[in-house]
Design a protein that fits this description.
Helix content: 25-40%
Shape: globular
Strand content: 15-25%
CATH class of one domain: Alpha Beta
CATH topology of one domain: Rossmann fold
Largest sheet: 5 strands, parallel
CATH architecture of one domain: 3-Layer(aba) Sandwich
Length: about 600
């Protein structure tokens, strides 16, 4: 947005003077408070990026001699490092923002509305850019320096016959103390057009260095605040359950914790005429303070200045991957012949298109129903049954990667040393991580990161789309692995794999007390292995049966000991699907499809 200097100012609460060339106010800082720079300024001599250090040195040298730790330089840096910047020298920040007095009346919205925003580029041009970016990533897949993520931006151009009231705009942006607000007067164009202003507000902090610490405050998801407390809480909970936002948060973390990426790509105009994303600043649009933490997936990291201590992201080959026990496995190249000793891990490998040539089976000698057709189509050979191993068969297959589970009935961990003589062995604990995280770990080991992200993105979109079509029963729900008297009857935990899946579809899960866990059985992150008697204490109005069908639901409701359960009395007991016991991409899709059939609205 091109902002000419206003020819009129708002008259309600005082704000920035109309000729202020630079102003800045950081987001509320619990350590230092807010730093505001709105006083007299002087321009810094303009120049290219390679001269910046020499040009700022005298200013900060004088501030150091005067023992002034509040001296600031701020402004705009062009994308093209060879072009001159536009920076201003500020004596310091006084800690207050004009117009930010307590009890100041809300500024009225001007009656004159600007013209309809014009997207730049238009929708068809933007979609062409998306298609081109995807094609580049497909073409470069497997290359050492391949592009793996592209951020494409769009601008909205707003033009109006009246001058924009800059002081009022800045005052509105500054109403939220959780954002950084800035305004920079840019050099006038050579054609003598109206002066330009770069104005913006952002809740994020790319980087702040203080001593030997670096702080980053990225945002990977937000939700609009609502007046109704219950609706507001539901909005917050939906954000916390959103697979899309959790996925974006996962992208933020490895990109921040490790060294800078070797390549990046950004779309959008490189001219500074568009206002950087300045959202509606209504009181319920942007979370503030502690609300920011629960409304948004934010990461506040303080780390060593080197920023390279524990990067999870790896690019190119060879790669060193961390096993479940903390040891490392070196892979010289992307594997082309994978042997899976765990039938549980095989499904996730198939889902991302990894080259699995053979896999162990269940104790019954079968693959899991949800993906056995895929395995058959891919020619995956059946090996030994879970609980046994055939080293001669492993040698004969000549794999270049062997995948082993750290636990469970299908674990071959005891034979790890012998298997390592055949090929590199990767050990993963599928019981200690979400299936989405497991998918990403396997993608990292096989060079299938792009396929994994596409798979998970598609699933997240399916989850959100399905949720929008559901008409759910009132009250809470629970998930039970019903085995009857004399046997454990596991109950899904709200934050376990099954609980998160149903929560993502909009259900409110009843979380079983951990005190119900049987001391005779190992604890699990997904379920509490409770005794049959504990089932009578469940209170949710709806019950889903793990690995259950309609026949299992009828058997549960016919159990006289469970007759007083709210779900039984309401007749709201449903099978979650025969393949729902172990959640991977295939079984998760089956569960979502089954819920859609059961509760899909008109």
């Amino acid at each position: 947005m091109t902002l000419p200097f206003p020819d009129a100012t708002l008259t309600e609460a005082p704000s920035l003077p109309p000729d202020q060339p630079f102003s800045f106010r950081n987001a509320r800082d619990q350590v230092r408070g807010q730093v505001c720079a709105t006083g007299p300024v002087r321009p810094l001599d303009r120049g290219a990026a390679d001269t910046l250090a020499d040009r700022v040195a005298p200013f900060f040298g004088a501030a150091r001699d005067a023992d002034d730790d509040g001296a600031l330089i701020g402004g705009a840096l062009p994308f093209d490092k060879a072009r001159p910047d536009c920076l201003w020298q500020v004596a310091g920040g006084d800690g207050s923002w004009p117009g930010a007095t307590a009890g100041a009346p809300a500024r009225p919205v001007p009656e004159q509305r600007p013209a309809r925003p014009c997207p730049q580029p238009p929708a068809n041009g933007y979609m062409d850019s998306v298609a081109r970016a995807l094609e580049i990533m497909r073409t470069e897949r497997g290359l050492p320096d391949a592009l793996t993520k592209v951020v494409l931006a769009r601008s909205l151009l707003v033009e109006d016959r009246m001058a924009f009231a800059l002081p009022g705009l800045m005052a509105r942006l500054a109403e939220d103390p959780a954002v950084t607000v800035f305004q920079v007067a840019l050099p006038q164009d050579a054609d003598g057009s109206a002066p330009r202003q770069l104005v913006g507000a952002t809740p994020e902090l790319l980087l702040r260095k203080r001593g030997d610490s670096v702080v980053s405050h990225p945002l990977a998801g937000s939700a609009r605040r609502l007046d109704d407390p219950e609706e507001d809480a539901r909005n917050a909970n939906a954000l916390a359950r959103s697979e899309k936002d959790r996925r974006e948060h996962g992208l933020v973390r490895p990109g921040r914790a490790g060294p800078p990426p070797r390549r990046s790509a950004c779309g959008g105009s490189r001219r500074s005429r568009a206002m950087p994303h300045a959202p509606d600043r209504s009181p319920h649009c942007q979370p503030t303070g502690e609300d920011m933490n629960r409304r948004s997936f934010l990461t506040l990291a303080t780390c060593a200045a080197a920023l390279g201590s524990s990067a999870e992201a790896v690019t190119g080959w060879p790669r060193r991957l961390t096993n479940a026990d903390g040891s490392e496995t070196a892979l010289p190249r992307a594997p082309a012949r994978i042997l899976s000793t765990s039938v549980t891990l095989t499904g996730s490998l198939l889902a991302i298109g990894a080259p699995v040539i053979a896999s162990a089976t269940t104790v019954r000698g079968a693959f899991f129903d949800q993906w056995q057709a895929e395995a058959r189509a891919r020619g995956v050979e059946k090996l030994w049954r879970a609980g046994s191993i055939d080293l001669e068969a492993a040698w004969a297959l000549e794999p270049d990667l062997i995948v082993v589970s750290a636990g469970g009935a299908d674990s071959a961990l005891a034979q790890r040393a012998a298997l390592a003589e055949v090929a590199p062995v990767l050990v993963l604990d599928y019981g200690a991580m979400a299936w989405e995280d497991l998918t990403r770990r396997l993608a990292q080991a096989t060079g299938r990161e792009a396929e994994a992200e596409a798979l998970l993105t598609g699933f997240a979109e399916t989850l959100d789309a399905t949720r929008a079509t559901l008409t759910l029963p009132d009250g809470r729900a629970n998930i039970v692995s019903y085995n009857g008297p004399g046997a454990p009857n596991p109950i899904a935990r709200a934050k376990g794999a099954h609980g998160r899946l149903l929560t993502g579809l909009g259900f409110d899960l009843e979380d079983p007390p951990t005190s119900w866990q049987s001391a005779a059985m190992p604890a699990s992150a997904d379920v509490v292995r409770a005794s049959y008697e504990h089932l009578t204490q469940l209170s949710a109005e709806t019950t889903f049966l793990l690995a259950g069908t309609k026949a299992d639901a009828a058997r549960f409701m016919a159990d006289p000991i469970l007759a007083n359960l709210p779900s039984v009395q309401r007749g709201q007991v449903y099978g979650l699907g025969k393949n729902s016991f172990r959640i991977d991409y295939y079984s998760a899709r089956e569960v979502v499809d089954g819920i859609a059939r059961q509760f899909g609205g008109a």
